[in-house]
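Example record used in the benchmark description.
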Amino acid sequence: MKSNIIKFFFPVVMLFAFVACDEWTEIESLDIHRPTLEEQNPELYAQYMQALRDYKARDHKIVFVSVDNPSTAPSQRSEHIKTLPDSVDYIVLKNPADVHPTLVAEMSLVREKGTRVLYTIDYDALEARWAQILEEEENNQPEESETPETPDESDGDEGEELQPDPAVVLEQRFLDFCREQTALQLSYCDRYGFDGVIVACTGKNYSGMADDVQARYIARQEAFFGTVGAWYGTHAGKSLSFCGKPQYLADKSILAQCDYVILPAIDVQSVSELSLVLVQASVAEVPADRFVIQVSTVSATDPTDETGYFLGLDEDGKSRLRAVKAAAQWTLAASDGTKAGLFIADAQNDYFNISMVYRNIREAISIMNPAPKNR
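Model output (structure tokens):
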């Protein structure tokens, strides 16, 4: 579970494991106090925490997890970020606009373990919201009057003003909207004390676009990433990562400032497809030393949802192969690009396990960062 620190703190790790196994059956309303390791043995706990931070400071496979945090107070253990495995490097909250004070306090707790808490700003979501705004405006427009227009009796063209191109005006409105909304979402970082942001953009292959369409595509990305770049210039101590298809960025210079380049692969169904995602991203000007592949957990509520599974069976020949495990094993295979680690989406789905909470996430961490063997 803790990779290199297990060897030295095995009793502590086992204590945490047994406590974690029971937590998901607890009733939240019961006021039962169980002494923590910090209370029982502060010195040993301090040594464990230092070993954990040292482990994360060393070279290892990075682990991101995202959680669907509620805006209300957490009502079950899976909604608390402090219950996530200690070896997780980054926790990504999916609802950054309204973080409950309970989770704000827990952000400080996990930070003591060397874990950083981030959130995502998604350009695609901004475009989708803009389309909704335009649709709402169109639906709210008054019907055109049937009264005939009065002819303009002014002499010639004297005093006539050229009207701006409506398409140009509309596009400028979007650019202003994009900058405003991006700046608003960036402000959450200071408001709640996040450790940084992930900027997401899927993008398109713009090389074959018509000149005017390509110019609009580039201008829109400049509005988004330019706002992010200006913010990062005053927040250099914060973490910045990119998520999406880096090969479709018109200006890839921002990637040099990013700690990691996260490649979404939630929809793939095989290891070979993971490799294809990596190959497609490995183009000129994209740093190949910081790739993180993103897969998902299996749904905890919908048995018909295929997300989180790969085709084929696990090593036991009976269980379905989970994307989390297969991707963890894939990160260890040699490739042209550096496989820096794994991003596991919707970690809360993996909490409820009868043998161990977050069992599949813990297994993935152990696969990528195995404990050293005695020689």
